[in-house]
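Reading a protein record of the kind used here takes only a little practice. The record below shows the convention in full.

——
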Amino acid sequence: MKVLPLNSAVLICAFTLSALFAGIEWSMANPVANPDYRCSYSSKAKDDVLDFEHCAWSDAAGHIHLKRKHLLALDFDRNGLASVNIGGGWYYVRRDGRLAPVMMMDNWAEPFADGLARSPVGSKIGFINRNLALVIPARYDGALPFEHGWAEVCIDCKLTSDGEHSWYVGGRWGCIDHRGHERGPFRPGQGAGHVCRNDG
């Protein structure tokens, strides 16, 4: 077991545009190709981030499971959720072991905004609630977190990066509510940070 220092700034999420784009990249290991995973998480016993080999596994269907001793060691929040990095990708996990992938922000699992968080499924992005249910299907090529009841999403956009910063370019942009209902048609030529503000 290796103990890594916990950078308290990692736990603070500032919803500025630079913070929004800094962690948009997502990473998911192929569960079928790698049946045994390495994990990192904050435990309830220590203030550090702990790093473990062989802490999770995948079944024949490709579903990832956290081993029981690690599930019991997690520091769950008041909503009964903990974040864990498994095989390079971030997940939220419930006390019963249910997992859901989540986007990364500021080198940590993205916090819930307006009760929802972005969740990568394959090459698409949807949104999960705190019960880890995918309440908005993963049908978008890009998405920003919810803010004031709306989220900006794009189709056929591409993620580009420059050092630690990433952002979406191109595609058609639209604005959705908590139920995934679109506010007007998706339109090209509008980048992130403009769609929800300019519609309606």
Summary: The radius of gyration is 17 Å. Residues 106-200 form one domain. The longest helix spans residues 17-22.
